[in-house]
Amino acid sequence: MAREWKCSGLRWSADGPVLVWDGGRRSAPAWGKRIAFAVPGGGVRTCVGARGNSCPVRAGVPGRSTGARCEECARLDRAHSVAADTIADDPRPYRVYLAWFGPGLVKVGITAVERGDARLLEQGAVCFSWLGTGPLMAARRTEELLRAALRVPDRIPYAEKRAVRAALPRAAAERAAEVRELHARAVALPAWPESLRAADCHVTDHLGAFGLDRAPGAFGEVLELVPGGAVSGELVAAAGPDLHLAVGGRGVVVLDTRLMAGWGLVPGESGEGRLGFPVREFRQEPDLLF
Predict the structure, then answer these.
(1) CA distances for 218 relative to 133, 182, 260, angstroms
(2) How much is the pTM?
(3) Residue 135, number of CB atoms within 10 A of its CB
(4) Which stretches does DSSP call E strand in 33-84?
């Protein structure tokens, strides 16, 4: 019987995406490399635990859960988290950023200075610019200011990010336009926190880092992994937690690696493209007639 592996998700390094496996093993999938794995029949998805601790009851979790945690472990994981706004005394400096994921999809967020642009890569931001740097609470106030004054959200669902990737503008200037416009409006706000040092607008573009500048558009996304299912495809792009896999004649499908967590996985057949998991196709906008 093949050994089962458990995936901890997709991380980003200076060299690109890295798949992390329980036990510390890492693998760096390269463009053009075939990704192939299967869920054994009768397999059960179990909670991944929280903060380095295993789930004490090995609770089962739904196949479509991206967190892969039971309620108790999810509560523990968020109990001391900047993202959940449960930390107010972190002494590290923070940056406020504007991130763009596609036409009309811009969000504001914060990240520790020491993390560089890793947070933006992890979210799948196609391009971004820093807004300013300062203490955590000043960064939080700036984030709230933009939400209230400019109606800029601090969250965008991944489903929306994926759906627009196939139709991103090809020109870098077009991709940067909304970020530049919002940046100018943001730094002009009168209630800007004094302890936050504003940054000039400098747009960083991740289209090439994600491989989206040469990959064909995806037709849909994997909804969940299921026992007895498998996937085999060529990696053509990756963004945030997502792998874009060319699966034979069907085209390119997006696999959120967070759906892999909690499953015991075995190597799949690496031959012709295969897709044995439920898929939701992206909605195709109807052509307009004039």
Answers:
(1) 36, 29, 19
(2) 0.90
(3) 16
(4) 34-38
